[in-house]
Every structure is written in structure tokens, then in C-alpha cells.
Inverse folding.
């Protein structure tokens, strides 16, 4: 298991790679839901294709893209990254959004966290683990 700084560096490098592959014209990613040949680099953070997220997470991504309206009051609030699993950034860099969980009476454990530079992360265990969302 890599130490915390090494793990953060791996998350950052993976997020930047995902951003470059999915968001740059002429890159190998199409941004249209094309599947990547490799889901994640060995030893790197886990990734997930947006198309492979639960339907509620795909709907939350659509709402984020559209600028709302969001069903939960806390949607769009600052994500503090207190777990330090995402790359360290200044306060306010990350925003969090609830992904509804069928059958839950409250907000549940699922969230999408976005970064100011377009990064997207998904957690289904209330910030214990994150996957980089490839779009």
C-alpha cells in the first residue's frame, strides 16, 4: 500500500490523464461515452465510465451539467476533502452532490464530487473510496 503522499500523487495523475483523454480535442478519448481499453492503471486509482454508473448517478451528472435544479439543499456545497483521498486543493475547489439511493430515507452514502478544473469523482461509501469518472 503506497503511503499517503504517493497515493495522492497517483490520484492526481490519474485525474489529469482522464481529463486529458476525455476533454481535449484530438485526444484518444471521444467524450461521447466511448469505453477506455483499460479501466485504470496498475496501482492507480480506480476509474469508472460514466455509462457504468448507477442510473441515479448518471442523472446527478446531467443535473450538474445543466446547473440544476438539485433535489437536496446541500448539493453544490463545498467538499472539504478531510479524508485527503483526492488531490489537495484550496478550500472551495471541490463541490459535492448527492446521488439518491433507492430505499434510503436520508441522503444515503453515494456522492459525486467535482473539481473546478472539470474532475469528477464518484463514491458509493460516503467518502471512504473514490473512483475517477471517465466521461
Amino acid at each position: 500500500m503506497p503511503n499517503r503522499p504517493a497515493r495522492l500523487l497517483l490520484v492526481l495523475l490519474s485525474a489529469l490523464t482522464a481529463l486529458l483523454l476525455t476533454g481535449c480535442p484530438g485526444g484518444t478519448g471521444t467524450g461521447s461515452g466511448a469505453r477506455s481499453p483499460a479501466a485504470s492503471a496498475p496501482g492507480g486509482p480506480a476509474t469508472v465510465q460514466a455509462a457504468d454508473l448507477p442510473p441515479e448517478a448518471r442523472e446527478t451528472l446531467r443535473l450538474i451539467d445543466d446547473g440544476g435544479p438539485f433535489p437536496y439543499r446541500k448539493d453544490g456545497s463545498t467538499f472539504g476533502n478531510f479524508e485527503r483521498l483526492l488531490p489537495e486543493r484550496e478550500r472551495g475547489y471541490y463541490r459535492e452532490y448527492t446521488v439518491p439511493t433507492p430505499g434510503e430515507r436520508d441522503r444515503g452514502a453515494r456522492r459525486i464530487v467535482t473539481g473546478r478544473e472539470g474532475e469528477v469523482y464518484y463514491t458509493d461509501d460516503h467518502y471512504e473510496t473514490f473512483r475517477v469518472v471517465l466521461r
Q: What stands out?
A: DSSP finds two helices and six strands in the chain. The longest strand covers residues 94-98.
